[in-house]
Write a structure and sequence with these properties.
The protein has 279 residues and is an alpha+beta fold. The protein contains 10 helices and 6 strands, in the order ααααααααββββββαα.
Length: 279
Amino acid sequence: MSNELLAQIDRVIQKRPLYKEALSTYRELVRLIEDSKPEIMYSTKDEAVAETKAKQGFPVFSREDLPLDLKATSSLFPRLLEHMSSQKREDSKALKNALDRVQTDPQWIERTITAFLSRDETTFTTMAQEVNLEPMVLRFVTSMALKPSLNALREAVGERIQKETWDYGYCPLCGSSPDMASLDDEGNRMLHCELCGSEWRYPRLKCPFCEKSEPKELGYFVSEEEEGFRVDFCKKCKVYIKTLDRRVVESPAPLELENIITLHLDMLAHEQGFKTPSG
């Protein structure tokens, strides 16, 4: 998976050199985490329970109870901080502060991960401020440290994820919100999980965040820079989601990359008064 993703990153860098710096940083971190081999405790005996929960609208796991390899994650966390703090970044000193904190207080990583997974923004922001680091940067480091475990979990659960029959705006595997959407070759809408990367089908004329389906409450605007990208928004809850149309975009990158290289759409959405699920 890592080699395939690295190849995709290289392809996108050639196609969109404007994002070379951001994607090169991401590429280095992908290489750094590829040696992580987390052990996931998931048994097929849980299938019946998962099926019953799915019928009742519950994801396979909640974010707080994901069976992740926290030992592997905690081992990877300082390596990411060390690498990023060694680069020529404006926040390199803050990253070094975070690294020093991890080395003097091993429980700091666990508390950070717990706050991240439980969506405790107050605690998470406070922990970032303790080391003078922007919360979004600490969120990025945490998500990258968790990525190997999340990928392993998604592969372990595999086809047991209710992708076609799941009719909710949150992930069928971990219950997280989507960060992007795509339209497949038949025009079906697929949502992409912000945390674990799972994808599932969802009605096109329905807000994933407040479930409004009245056409007058829903709208979108397209990207003038690139054909095949749009921003879907809900007038009721004021939340938006970026959408890639696979019928138009030739050889699209994985959505985790497309999310990085469409930041101009996020800026446009915010300028028009819309927000992401987390605000």
